[in-house]
Design brief:
Elements lengths: L1 H11 L4 H16 L6 H16 L3 E5 L1 H17 L3 E4 L6 H12 L5 E2 L5 E2 L9 E2 L1 H5 L3 E5 L3 H9 L3 E5 L6 H5 L2 E3 L3 H15 L3 H10 L2 H22 L1
Parallel strand pairs: 1-2, 1-6, 2-3, 6-7, 7-8
Antiparallel strand pairs: 4-5
Helix pairs in contact: 3-9, 3-10, 3-11, 4-9
C-alpha cells in the first residue's frame, strides 16, 4: 500500500523518482531490523522530543517523501511542540514546491518555504535555499529522510540536527546530533508520545538531553541488527 501511494505521489509531482529509490533503500534496512523500533531508536526518539521541547526556535523540515509518508503526524508534532514547518527539497522547481506546500496546507497547517530569503552556507544545490524565519534561524531542526551534505552543513551552522534515517551508517546518521534509525511513521509517532509525556517537565527534558549519547545509540543499532540477523539464521 505504501509503495502504491508513493507511486501515485510521483505521478502527482509531490515525490521525485529518486525518492522511490530512497524509500526502497529504507525498506531494506527495515527488514534487517525486523520491521520494528529498536531500543536504541526509542532512546533517540526520546532525546529528539527533549531537544525539540527545549528549543527556542524549533523547525520541522519536510521533503517529498516525508510529506507523503507522515504528513499528519509531522503536523501534529509541530503543533504539540510547537514548531515551525518548512518545505525543503533537492529536486526543486517552483511548481513542485507549490504542490508540496499546498499539500501540507490542505490540513490547515502554516508552512514556510515558498519564498526563500536565506541560504545555508557551504551548499551548492537548491537545498541551500531556505527562509530566515524557519530553517536559517532555527536552533533545533528535525530533518526526516535527509541528504548527508545538508545535515552536515546545518551542523556546521551550530544547530542541533535530529535526523530520521533508518540507515545507521549513512552520512546523515553519522553527522546528526540525534540519529533516529527507524521507519519514519513509527519514529514520528514515538516522538509525539515522548513530547506529550515530557511537556512541562523541564527537569526530565534536561536529564534526557544530558544522558543521551548518539555514538553509543548508533553502535547499539548496528549490534541489534546483527543480533536479529543471527537469530533469523539460527531459526532457519
Amino acid at each position: 500500500m505504501v509503495r502504491e501511494m508513493l507511486s501515485e505521489m510521483v505521478d502527482k509531482g509531490l515525490v521525485s523518482q529518486t525518492g522511490l529509490i530512497s524509500h526502497g533503500r529504507g525498506e531494506a534496512f527495515d527488514y534487517l531490523m525486523g520491521e520494528r523500533t529498536l531500543p536504541a531508536a526509542l532512546l533517540a526518539e526520546k532525546a529528539a522530543a527533549a531537544y525539540l521541547l527545549g528549543a527556542a526556535r524549533p523547525v520541522i523540515c519536510v521533503n517529498g517523501n516525508a510529506a507523503a509518508l507522515a504528513r499528519m503526524n509531522l503536523i501534529n508534532l509541530a503543533e504539540q511542540i510547537p514548531a515551525k514547518i518548512e518545505v525543503n527539497i533537492f529536486h526543486r522547481t517552483e511548481e513542485r514546491m507549490d504542490l508540496l506546500i499546498e499539500y501540507m496546507e490542505e490540513t490547515g497547517a502554516e508552512v514556510l518555504g515558498r519564498d526563500p530569503d536565506a541560504s545555508i552556507p557551504g551548499l551548492s544545490s537548491d537545498r541551500a535555499l531556505c527562509t530566515s524565519e524557519g530553517i536559517f534561524r532555527s536552533d533545533v531542526i528535525l530533518v526526516p529522510i535527509e541528504d548527508g551534505d545538508r545535515a552536515q552543513a546545518l551542523t556546521k551552522m551550530g544547530k542541533v540536527v535530529i535526523s530520521i534515517d533508518i540507515n545507521p551508517l549513512s552520512r546523515t546518521s553519522k553527522t546528526a546530533t540525534v540519529s533516529i534509525c527507524d521507519e519514519i511513521t513509527r519514529a514520528v509517532e514515538n516522538i509525539i508520545g515522548f513530547v506529550q509525556d515530557m511537556k512541562g517537565r523541564p527537569d526530565e527534558i534536561l536529564k534526557t538531553i544530558r544522558s543521551y549519547n548518539n555514538d553509543e545509540a548508533r553502535e547499539e543499532t548496528v549490534n541489534e541488527i546483527c543480533s536479529f540477523l543471527r537469530s533469523e539464521v539460527r531459526r532457519g
